[in-house]
Amino acid sequence: MDYNLDSLLAIVPRYDSLPEQEWRTTLASAAQHRWKTMPRRTRQVLQALKDEALKNLLGGSPLLPPDMPKKLPPVLKLLTGKVPQPYKPCVAEGVFPALAAHLHGVKFRYIDNSEREAAIMCLLIAQMATGKSSVNMPIKRIMADIDERDKISMEMDNEWKQKNPSSKSSPRDPRPKEICIQNLSDNLTDACFNQRVFDAERNGHRYLFLKTDELNSMLRVTSRGNMQQLSLLIRNAFDNAEHGQERVGTDSITGKAPLRFNFHTSTTPSVARKLLKSALIDGTLSRLSVSSIEKEQTDGMIPKYGIYDDKFDADLKPFIDTLNRANGYYECKQLNRLIEGLVMDCKDKAVQYDSEGYEILSRRACVIAFSKGMVLYILNGKRWSREIADYVDWSLRYDMWCKMKHFGEMLEEELDNEKQALNSGMVNLYDLLPDTFTLEEYQRVRMTLGKTSDGNATLRKWKQRRQVEFDEIANAYVKTKRSAA
Fold this sequence. Notes:
- The chain is 50% helix and 10% strand.
- The chain is an alpha/beta fold.
- The chain folds into three domains: 1-32, no CATH class; 47-413, Rossmann fold (3-Layer(aba) Sandwich), CATH 3.40.50; 425-485, Arc Repressor Mutant, subunit A, CATH 1.10.10.
- It has helices spanning 5-11, 20-32, 40-57, 74-79, 88-94, 96-100, 136-142, 144-163, 190-202, 215-218, 227-238, 269-276, 310-325, 333-352, 356-379, 386-424, 429-432, 439-448, 456-464, and strands at residues 106-109, 115-116, 121-126, 208-211, 242-245, 255-258, 261-267, 289-293, 328-330, 436-437, 468-471, 476-479.
- The strands form four sheets. The protein has a four-stranded parallel sheet with strand order 4-7-3-8. The protein has a three-stranded mixed sheet with strand order 2-1-9, with helices on one face.
C-alpha cells in the first residue's frame, strides 16, 4: 500500500461536512500508522461474506441448511415418520450412532484403502426449546434390544460383585466373560469405562453407546471431567485406537482394546462454541457429525408427534435384526465412487472460496458420510439405491453447512493464528499478535510461547510506550508501531 500523503490526498475524497484541515490531519495520521495486516474488523466482515457464500454453494442459505431429499432410504423413512417436518433432518442424522452400535465385527474399506468401522458420533446444536428432544424416542426404540441384553449383564455383574467383595486377603472368582453392557450412563469412573470397553471387545468387537441431552454431561464420561479428556476420547473413538489401562493390583482392571464408542448429544450454539473453542484444530470437531435445528425452520406452533406403538417396533425389528446379523468385511463400489467425487468436490469448493477450514473439515466429513452410506447399504440388504446416494450427498453438505455456520469463523481465525505463530520463528510477542487483538487472543499467543503469567504488566508497558491503544468500542487493543522495543 502507498502511504505517501500526497497520494492519499489525491485519491481520498473530502465530504462537504468535513473541514479541510481535519481531512488533512486524518490522512496524515493514517499515513503514519502503517498496518502490516488487514484490520481485525475488516477480516471478520470478509470471513462472514465467505462463509455466507459457502453456505449458498452447499445448497442452503445463510439462515437455512440444504433441504433433505424428499425420498429417503426405508429405515430413515420409518424413523423420521413420526416427527414434525422441521425435525426430520436432525432425527435422520441423529439415529446413526445407535444404528451403528448394533454392528459388531464389521469392517469397511475406505477410498484410501484404510479399514474403517461405523464410528459415528453426533452433536445436535439448537436453541433452547426448539425440539432437540425429537430424536430421543427413535433412539430409545433402536436401542431396545441392546437394553434388554444389558439388563441380563447388569444382573450378572451385580451378582458377581456381591459374591466377590473387594478384599486383599481372599481370592475372587473370575468375572463372567459374557458380561457386556453397551448402553452407558453419563457418569462413569475411568475404571468402569475401561471395563466396558474391554468387555465389548471380548464379546464380539461390539460398540458402546451413550445418549445425553447436554454436551456438558459428556464431560462426566471421564473421571477428570474436562474437555481435554473428552476431546481425546472422541479422537481415539473415531479411529478405534487402543484404549485401556495397565495396573499391578489384583483388583484393578487391566487390559487394552480398540475403543468402539458411538454417541449422540445436544447443546445450544453458545455452549457448543464455548466447549469446542479449544478443540477446533486438534481434530475433535472434524470427527463429529453435526446437525442443527434453526429457528427459521420452525413455525412457532406446538409440534405434534406420532405415537411409537407396537406396529412401529414390529416395522423396525427387521432392520435391527439385519444389523445384528451383519459380520465381516463389506464393500460397496458405487459408494466408493460417489465418495471419491464428493472429496474432489469439497476440494474445489475450498479452493474456490479460499477456505482452509472448509478443506480441513471436509476430509473427515467425507469419511463420516461414507460410514453412514455403508450402514444404509447393509440395512438395504447390500443393495445400492438412488435414495442412498442422494442421502449420502445431502448428509455431507448438511454436516458441512452446520459446521461452517457454528464454527467456520472461529476455525479460520484459529488457523490464521497458528499459521502466524509457526511462520514467525524467533520473533517477539508483539510481532506475533495481529494489528488488532483482544485480551483473549493476547493470552492465547502468550501460551503458545510457553509464558504462564497473565501478561498484564507487558500490556501496561506497551500502553505507556504508546505501542498499543485500547479501542473501547471494539473492546480490543490496536498496535501503533511496527515492533516492540
